[in-house]
DNA-binding MarR family transcriptional regulator (Povalibacter uvarum), 350 residues
Amino acid sequence: MTPAAQIDDVYAMKRKSPPKKSLTRKAASRAASIDADILPTLLGYNIRRAQIVLWRDFARTVADGEIRPGMFSAIALVKANPGIAQVELSTELAIDKASMVGLIDRLEDAGWIVRTRSQEDRRRQGLTLTPAGEKMYRTLKREMLEHEQKFAALYSESERKQLVTLLRRLHDAQP
Amino acid sequence: MTPAAQIDDVYAMKRKSPPKKSLTRKAASRAASIDADILPTLLGYNIRRAQIVLWRDFARTVADGEIRPGMFSAIALVKANPGIAQVELSTELAIDKASMVGLIDRLEDAGWIVRTRSQEDRRRQGLTLTPAGEKMYRTLKREMLEHEQKFAALYSESERKQLVTLLRRLHDAQP
DNA sequence: TATTGTTATACTCTATAACTATA
DNA sequence: TATAGTTATAGAGTATAACAATA
């Protein structure tokens, strides 16, 4: 089954023939107004739906479901910034430092990352990839790009760039 | 603190002065290649980040954090389709039917939704809003639009439409 | 046999609060 | 006082598997 593909059909169906199973007549007569189409017009709803689709394909394509997008991002940032502190990673990925601990624990348990106490500032844990982590990253990156490619293929290059630009404007906002 | 706002600064900082705290010299010299900027170019990364920002503002703006986006979507769909069955809601929101049970439980416990066994097909639970649910929905909708407006304001009308169009193409895809 | 809803179970993601150690 | 990391705790979201009732 591919639920995502049926969404528009379901909407169409709903619009053409409102459900007959309604059990409270009052509620039924009150509905079918403008409310029916609110959700599909909202940024939040569409981003959430897009995120779910990406999440699932990521799980299917990358690391056989063993790695989630958050873990991949962490590995990629450590690869790009060896020695980065956990708190910097938290800021970068916009998640709480407490949530980061568990994430790093998992990566350390898997043998891909090591924590090393900084000599200059002994509060900091510097993060670096192990050789196994480097190797894993190469595989991950290939699978990640394969995953990315499936979705990038939905767009022309200028559409893709535009989408990324518009999304960045959103996540850089601080409302 | 506003972590999201600092992301680009952090990137800039990283590019200008790579971290000095690196503890394994070998790893340090190996990095700083193309890998540093992979993440910000990926659709998945940007959608995930956007989703986090929206999620947080939603929690701040709507129902004082008592309602999450998934619950709002469920309420809005029941409002628009009184008598809708749980399985239809699952398909619509692209989540598993088993996950839907807990969600509906919470909405029923709060007194906003009632399940009513269908007479035509006794396997089905028809969902409708209670009067309290209808009232809650009106408040929720107002707060939701306020939340939406903060982000819609980042775009021109044509940009917003384009963003929604591009996102829909993504979540209607079945890769 | 297939569908609808449910329970049981498990794991990830996230947050808050309180703590330790270091600065 | 402030920062980096940790632990404890909690709740939401998700998924799979197995099951009962119904079609």
